[in-house]
Amino acid sequence: MRRAPATTPRAVRLALALALFAGLAAPGARAAEPAAGAGAAEATAGRDPGRDLGRETLAADDGWAAAEGGTTGGAAADEAHVFTVRSRGELVRALDAGGDTPKIIRIAGTIDANTDDRGRPLDCSDYATDGYDLTAYLAAYDPRTWGGAKPSGPQEEARRASAARQAERVEIAVGSNTTLVGLGENAVLTGASLRVDGADNVIVRNLHLRDAYDCFPVWQPNQGGLSDWKTAYDNLWLRGATHVWIDHVTVSDRGHPDDREPTLFGRNYLRHDGLLDITNGSDLITVSWSRFADHDKAMLIGNSDSATGDRGRLRVTLHHNAFENVVQRAPRVRFGQVHVYNNRYVVPENAHDYRYSWGISTESAVYAENNAFTTPGHIEAADLVKSWNGSTLHQTGTLFNGYPVDLLTIHNAYNSGSERDLTADVGWTPALHGRVDSAQRADHDVARGAGAGRIR
Length: 456
Ligand code: CA
Known about the structure:
Blueprint: H1 10-22, H2 27-32, H3 34-43, E1 82-85, H4 88-96, E2 103-107, E3 110-112, H5 124-127, H6 134-140, H7 143-146, H8 154-170, E4 171-173, E5 178-182, E6 188-190, E7 193-197, E8 200-210, E9 218-223, E10 226-230, E11 236-239, E12 242-252, E13 263-264, E14 267-268, E15 276-279, E16 283-288, E17 291-297, E18 299-301, E19 316-319, E20 322-328, E21 332-333, E22 337-341, E23 344-346, E24 358-360, E25 365-369, E26 372-374, E27 385-387, E28 394-396, E29 398-400, E30 403-405, H9 407-414, H10 439-449
Parallel strand pairs: 1-2, 2-5, 3-6, 4-7, 5-8, 6-8, 7-11, 8-12, 11-15, 12-16, 12-17, 15-18, 16-19, 17-20, 18-21, 19-22, 20-23, 21-24, 22-25, 23-26, 24-27, 25-28, 26-29
Antiparallel strand pairs: 9-10, 13-14, 29-30
Helix pairs in contact: 1-3
The structure holds calcium ion (CA).
Calcium ion (CA) binds near residues 234, 273, 274 and 277.
């Protein structure tokens, strides 16, 4: 963030500071000192210097989170519940303040969740306890000697105890009637797993959410025939959450890409789970103008075929988001009525592990309009959609490398033997949404406008 130049007269800087504090514009001061005015504008995030993102609410027609009362987050907070936080400790204290009283929490600079109460950084060795050691863990549960049973015994117990110590630092709960917003263009929360668990009316905007890194992945042999490393943390997990608006966030593994992790027991030693997972009866969610990047499993909506309590819930709108260099789940859906419009998908030239974008699973009802995909030559339109126990997909206006395609027809023509044909009738038509642009227009606008630091 640019700062007011040192030559700015003290009185002008003071006037600006007071104006910002009061949430008022100070046109005289800015006219006298344009450079300082630009700095002040960025301090409130956005080009309009009078704009206070914390006080903004979701527009009346903007997706599922606008239904049934809408989403206001902490916009109604009194002055005692407006916080600017710069450390994990300050963030957690602000989130805890006043129970469900509306609150606005502004994140300034970079906050690392992997820090102790005095703000000192913690690494994986600081959490390890009871003799946990990766080399010993690998020796204990090597499938060639341990076999296919779930890990148990001293090393697994030590892993669990160590993982609990990390969870205590990085799992951060966000309660009802909260707005969490980044100040300026470079507000970062790294290492955290934000959890909106059983809460209602939450807004998260203008934030970089990075690297929810699991120090202690667990080996899970033979899960449905496939053994794999399982990791604990999503950057953002909505669990039984209602009325949530996620807007202009950038979520990624930045700092620790999984493709640089070793292969252990024949599998990538994954460190990250989802970027944004929406599960356990969550409902009425809008995700807009956000960027999901450089990651394996981006977004899971519904986490189990047997979670029939999700029936009639998991209603989500995804619009004007960028999914760039993600391997799968953009999103993968069970049960929900999910409106996917005007999103931009980019698979880079060097992506050799791409799996699919839209996952159509049990009782899902995805209504997709005017989305744009850009992929390298070895990826075909038939690769974009994958179904497991899914039966419907509505899609229109899809653009694939600049050409219109009908992904439903292509899926049914080229699906593998294990997938059944999908029908176009998803049983609903979205009513709450803004203007639906052409895929070409959306692709262009999202490339320029999605993600943290880009609210205009
Ligand atoms: Ca997850």
